[in-house]
Specification:
Blueprint lengths: L23 H12 L3 H8 L5 H10 L8 E4 L5 H10 L5 E5 L2 H10 L4 E3 L12 E7 L8 H11 E12 L5 H23 L4 H14 L3 H10 L3 E8 L3 E7 L6
Helix pairs in contact: 1-8, 2-7, 3-4, 6-9, 7-8
Amino acid sequence: MDTPPAGLAPHATLPRHYADPAQRDRFVRGLFDGGAASYDRINAVFSFGSGARYRREALLRSGLAPGQRLLDVATGTGLVAREALAVLGRPQDVIGLDLSGGMLREARAALPIPLVQARAEALPLASESVDLVSMGYALRHVADLVRTFAEYRRVLRPGGRVLLLEIDQPSSPVALAALRFYLGRVVPVLSRWIAGRGRSQQMMEYFWDTIDACVPPEAIQGALAEAGFTDIGCEVQLGIFRAYRARRPDATP
């Protein structure tokens, strides 16, 4: 399949954080480098219980099983990769990839898996080399959804699947206001208290701002379809946690 046209950013430029789309990668890399050391502690505050069990069950529902090979994009400190390793058993069957060298250093201290520093839009993997691509709470940080998903399709074997875990705005105005207050104000302040100086507070402010500005679920599913995926679906829990799933079609006979 030819690379589909670019053109769907997950959200508009956020002037509060960077002035031009061309600055996005540098900003995101620096932000997560600066907050990497305290990320796991902060994650425990804002995860709402969406911890190891939720991630592992999401992987299992996506068909992950021993003997397969998984690529975890935007692996961060390796929270999704740890659960994948628990399922697959062999470190060589889980590959972690992230733009942030700081995050990869944290992951390397906890996981014996191969780790790669690269962009989601340009994966340094062979075509048709993995069975599942996972991405945990990070699709808002790429430059173009269609181009990213096209790369996922390229590296997946025929019949392979993609799993995208995300946080979305709840439909209830009251719930949205509560979530905006908690993730947009409380968590950034708590992050500074937990981590002290550094960029942890800004990292959490950016986290909420990207959720608040993110394209709707229908656009994400449309980008998956444009990139060539089928069997596209989305599972919602607690009104805010979304697990997008899609499948690369089998090879044409």
